[in-house]
Amino acid sequence: QIEGGYTYSRTGNDKYNSLGELLVRVPTGNRIELRFGINSYALDYSEAGSLGGLEDSSFEVKIKLTRGSERPRLLQPATALTLGTILPTGSNALGERKFQPDGTLAAAWVLSDLWSLSTNLNFLLGSQEGKRFDQVSASASLGYQASKRLGGFVEYFTHLPGGSDGLNTNYLDSGITFLLNNNFQVDARIGVGFNRINPEYFVGFGLAHRWKRPFF
Fold first, then answer.
1. Which residues partner with 206 through β-bridges?
2. For the chain, how far is it from start to end, CA to CA, in angstroms?
């Protein structure tokens, strides 16, 4: 499966564009999936001027831990563990010069025929402008399947902290997905931040093409 997209975000007077956001997912068995994040091209406009170039790429291994129940059962979620790192492959203007290892524990529940819930808990040994910091992130997403083709979601996520400055960040976003056929999907999303910065929002769209049954 290959995924890609575009995101525009604004934080105060800073305007950031990211084009590409390519993720290649390669299953190697019933439980293992390799994930290759290809560098996006980004443009950053701020009061200090503009910057452009490639963001860092990434590599991850996702391991399915439990399959989960197809019925609403609180103690039987589908779970997976993802281990990987952000690679120092971006341009000098936008990339970091250090590896940034991370790990994510994901869990998902079927709530009904139409509703689902998914959560993520992540740890990142991050780097920002060469300065190391530890980051814990968490998210919860409520999904709704309106039809066989149309779905939607609302999600809350937080970063503790959001960067090397030590300030925590919180966001809420919502979006829709539409299945054009059994193997091709498009999506759109919009979100806002709750971090005492005005304005602070982001919008984006994505595409996904699947060659095989999804891993998780």
1. 5, 187
2. 12
